[in-house]
Amino acid sequence: MQHLTSFLMSGLASATSGGRRYHVWMGSLTLIILGGAYAYYIQLRYGLGVTGMNDHVSWGLYISNFTFLVGLAAGGAAVSLWHRVLLFLYRTPFGTADPIFNNDVGFYVFTYPLLVVLREALQ
């Protein structure tokens, strides 16, 4: 528990350190997030009628924007893992074996990170 507390406190300290521009930027982003949360609350409380979405076109825009943002998030996740695939495809042996498993060190640099990603994806 002590490690978690120290981790959270160090994270809070690094998140709140910065200059004036940083704090203005974070404050404006926080206001945008709070405005979106309030709009979502109103939408949940009073229904989608308050949004004026009474025809098929507005519903189509609502659903297509949602699917676009989900696809954008999935694409961002895929792009962030692409370097591991490239490391695997263009791997080269180091010529040095580790003393425990007798694998080439290049396995741990190029192949193992992709295997970890695949294992996590299949769980």
Commentary on this structure:
With 123 residues, the protein is mainly α. It has two domains: 1-52, no CATH class; 55-123, no CATH class. It is 76% helix and 0% strand. It contains four helices and no strands. The protein has helices at residues 2-16, 20-46, 56-89, 105-122. α3 runs antiparallel to α4. It is extended, with a radius of gyration of 24 Å.
Beta-strand content: under 5%
Which spans have pLDDT < 50 for at least 5 consecutive residues? none
Taking the sheet with the most strands, its summary is:
none
The count of DSSP E runs of length 2 or more, i.e. the number of strands, is 0
**Cα gyration radius (Å):** 24 Å
Average pLDDT confidence is 87
| Helical percentage | over 70%
What is the count of DSSP helices, taking H or I runs of 4+ residues? 4
Shape: extended
Sheet/helix structural class: mainly alpha
| Number of structural units classed as domains | 2
Query: Span between N and C termini?
Result: 28 Å
Run of helices and strands: HHHH
Please sum up the structure shown.
With 123 residues, the chain is mainly α.
Question: Which key features would you list for this structure?
Answer:
123 residues; mainly alpha; 2 domains; 4 helices; extended
